[in-house]
Write a structure and sequence with these properties.
Blueprint: H1 2-11, E1 18-22, E2 39-43, H2 53-66, H3 74-89, H4 92-99
Parallel strand pairs: 1-2
Helix pairs in contact: 2-3
Length: 108
């Protein structure tokens, strides 16, 4: 996570500040940005999956692509999840509808 935050820091234009919105995972903590001055973390409230777009993506993938399946082995799991992801992202409209939040707009 620290490496990821460092990458965000490096990709952030000089004079700008990045805000990373995270859920309550234990590795999403302030330690990951201790030495980074142009990145801040904003934690989502607990039990608020509706605020985190990826939760809707996981739900769609389970309901439409991965539910009630048996997998042969690890490679089959990776293959089927990759197929499900590609199916999800094949519709730009679906991605925009499920992943866009009016309250999360980029100010340029």
């Amino acid at each position: 996570m620290t490496k990821h935050m460092d990458q965000i820091s490096q990709a952030t234009e000089y004079g700008r500040h990045a805000l990373v919105i995270v859920d309550g995972a234990s590795w999403h903590n302030e330690k990951t940005i201790e030495d980074i001055e142009n990145v801040s973390i904003l934690k989502l409230p607990p039990y608020s999956p509706e605020l985190n777009p990826i939760e809707q993506v996981w739900q769609w993938m389970r309901q439409n692509e991965l539910a009630n399946r048996c997998f042969k082995n690890y490679d089959d799991i990776v293959e089927q999840v990759s197929r499900a992801w590609n199916s999800f992202r094949s519709s730009t409209e679906r991605v925009n509808t499920m992943c866009t939040r009016e309250w999360a707009t980029l100010i340029t």
